[in-house]
Amino acid sequence: MIFVFATLVGIYLMVHSLIFQAHAEGDNDSEKPRVVILATGGTIAGVGEIGKTAGYAPGSLTAEELISEVPLLERIARIDTVQICNVNSDDITAKIWLELANTINRMAKDPDVTGFVITHGTDTLEETAYFLNLTVKTEKPVVITGSMRPSTSISADGPMNLYQAVCVASAPVARGKGVLAVFSDRIYSARTVAKTSTYHVTAIAAGEMGAIGMVRDGAVFIYEMPAKRHTLQTEFDASSLYALPKVSILYFYVDADVELLRFAAAHSDGLVIAGAGAGEFSQSFKSTIESLVIPVVISSRIDDGVITQDNLLCKNTVAADNLSPQKAAILLKLALTLEDADLVRMFGEY
Ligand code: ASP
């Protein structure tokens, strides 16, 4: 009797596990989400001396080679790849940003596409994330990721970050949240994400603002909505652009040279000042800025805090709110593509 019962339980478990396995391995391939990976290079595609974390060549592996390192991806999504470029992210350009935005906007119209993952170097990941946050026109998840360690190092973080990014790009809960960054188990909003360390694996973070969600074993949890305008809610149109206006960032420090400020102003369409404290600078900077006719946005060289319009030293300038200088420069570039842009309103809304 016990033998018959044990045999029946055994048969049940075997059939159950076969059904489960068939499901997990995706016999029903067309039911899986379809995620497009747009690869741009960076350390995640970096190759160097086996085991080492430094001294490698970023942007070496192709998108196909990246996904072949994470066989588990096949279980969760149908993957398409687009190799946009294969560079160190310090070599990302406005041309690449426009190609990324326009490719996503075109492919997002395909009802079969669920979401997008961009693989990117961490140095300028936050800038590409914010640019796309203001220019992609879709509710579908657009997720950017990278890694701090090259693919050839011990405990490379790229495969896990890529896996988690694909999970987020496949998740219905990630729709309509603006562009997201996924790094080391956490989900960040593009507007607040930043590189915060030169080498830790948790380098991509969001300071005081924090993560908006997390990923664990492929399960995606999101708890916050971005409060500022993004994606479908913006007035920017990348499809008609071939280049972006030139905006320069000037860093203020003790004895900062106003000649550099004048030079930058003469060669730019707009300026961003990384001021000290709450966007402050010397009297000589002040009088030079007051004489300028191009738009000047005031941000801070400090990571945390806000710059407000009513406390600015110069009346002819615009407060960056809590945008970092590099993100303020992106918003100013996009604003300058529009006629008669109301910069004060825009820096309040975006
Ligand atoms: N220099 C690299 C890059 O930004 C750093 C990284 O990806 O972590 O492409």
Binned strand content? 15-25%
Q: What percent of residues adopt helix (DSSP H or I)? A: 25-40%
Q: Span from first to last CA?
A: 72 Å
Oligomeric state, counting identical vs distinct chains? single chain
CATH superfamily of the largest domain: L-asparaginase, N-terminal domain
Structural class: alpha/beta
Strand order of the largest sheet: 2-1-3-4-5-6-9-10
CATH topology label of the largest domain: Rossmann fold
Largest sheet: 8 strands, mixed
The coarse overall form would be globular
Rg value: 23 Å
Q: Report the CATH architecture of the largest domain.
A: 3-Layer(aba) Sandwich
Q: Tally the helices: what do you get?
A: 10
Query: What is the number of strand segments?
Result: 14
Low-confidence stretches are 12-27
Task: Provide the number of structural domains.
Answer: 2
Instruction: Give the C-level CATH assignment of the largest domain.
Output: Alpha Beta
What compounds are bound to the protein?
aspartic acid
Structural notes for this entry:
The termini are far apart. This protein is about 30% helix and about 20% strand. It is an alpha/beta fold and about 350 residues long. Bound molecules: aspartic acid. The site of aspartic acid has 11 residues, from loops.
How does the SSE layout of this entry go?
Layout: H1 2-24, E1 34-41, H2 63-68, H3 73-76, E2 78-87, H4 94-107, E3 115-119, H5 125-135, E4 142-145, H6 158-170, E5 180-183, E6 186-189, E7 194-195, E8 204-205, E9 213-216, E10 219-222, E11 247-251, H7 258-266, E12 270-275, H8 283-290, E13 296-300, E14 317-319, H9 325-335, H10 343-349
Parallel strand pairs: 1-2, 1-3, 3-4, 4-5, 11-12, 12-13, 13-14
Antiparallel strand pairs: 5-6, 6-9, 7-8, 9-10
Helix pairs in contact: 5-9
The structure holds aspartic acid.
